[in-house]
Design goal:
Oligomer: single chain
Shape: globular
Strand content: 15-25%
Radius of gyration: 18 Å
Helix content: 25-40%
Largest sheet: 8 strands, parallel, barrel
Number of strands: 10
């Protein structure tokens, strides 16, 4: 069992990598339970690996009630409804320490314009477009808009149906398109395990976050797809151990974070692969 605190350093590759998406599917933890769980993460020995608490615009009232009288909370604001949600959501988020904004849109240029107009320059943001708009020329057009902005890209790597999970080549196109432009990005959904695998219960093909980290340094699409397809955890762990400090910097300047409905699962996987010590991490109560 891991102690709740102690002098354990989180490797640079995993610093702030795991945004807390406990209230989102498939975890769906009630807000009143997710908030104290997040506060526990933020005081645990692995706190440096944990990003902000992610909350959708429609649940900010519920979140405000849950945190009343309990102290400040760093919140990543998730806006699935497009640019029209931005102004009212920013007003509703006033009680929180705003750690970032994630804006889903069908028009990257419009989203950038609204973020420029309404968002404080010291608050980071990421722009997500539907995957069907990021195929073919649409990918290059979108990334070109974002590379000239102050904002990251965001890519959806899973969901609650099989079709929500992109294949290796599709994800590789996004990763290498960003890498060639020096455009940072975050991912969301389906990445809570370290290694690519087939979920035994759903049959869904999940990408592994270690695969994505290692592929983030690639500018060649075929090479990135090969890394994303690797299913041997020991192969990936060996590759991680061989990374230089410069490579780690390049990777994390590109792949900044991902949302996960469990903080324990990715840390458990790292411990099992010998990439985080001590091990194993005791699982969160469900």
């Amino acid at each position: 069992m891991f102690p709740s605190s102690g002098p354990f350093a989180i490797p640079e590759l995993f610093l702030g990598l795991f945004d807390d998406a406990a209230v989102f599917p498939p975890g769906n933890l009630p807000v009143v339970e997710a908030v104290p769980a997040h506060r526990a993460h933020r005081t645990a020995w692995y706190a440096d690996a944990v990003g902000p608490f992610l909350c959708g615009a429609g649940r900010l009232g519920e979140l405000a009630a849950a945190v009343e009288g309990t102290g400040p909370l760093r919140v990543g604001l998730v806006l699935p409804g497009g640019s029209a949600e931005l102004a009212p959501a920013l007003a509703a988020a006033a009680p929180f320490e705003l750690a970032g904004v994630e804006l889903a849109t069908r028009d990257a240029a419009e989203a950038v314009a609204e973020l420029d107009r309404l968002l404080s320059p010291d608050v980071p943001a990421a722009v997500e477009l539907p995957r069907e708009l990021l195929r073919g020329d649409g990918l290059d057009e979108t990334l070109d808009v974002l590379v000239d902005s102050a904002y990251r890209a965001k890519f959806r790597t899973g969901g609650v149906v099989a079709e929500a999970f992109p294949g290796e080549d599709e994800l590789a196109a996004f990763l290498t398109g960003c890498a060639r432009r020096g455009l940072p990005y975050k991912c969301t959904a389906g990445l809570h395990n370290a290694v690519r695998h087939t979920d035994p219960e759903t049959g869904f093909e999940h990408h592994g976050f270690l695969n994505v980290l290692l592929a983030a340094q690639e500018t060649d699409r075929a090479a990135a797809a090969e890394v994303l397809a690797e299913r041997d955890g020991e192969v990936l762990a060996k590759a991680v151990r061989a990374l230089s400090g410069h490579q780690v910097t390049v990777i994390r300047n590109s792949f900044t974070a991902f949302g996960t409905c469990s903080i324990a699962e990715p840390l458990d996987d790292l411990a099992a692969l010998g990439l985080l010590s001590p091990s194993p991490l005791v699982q969160e109560d469900r």
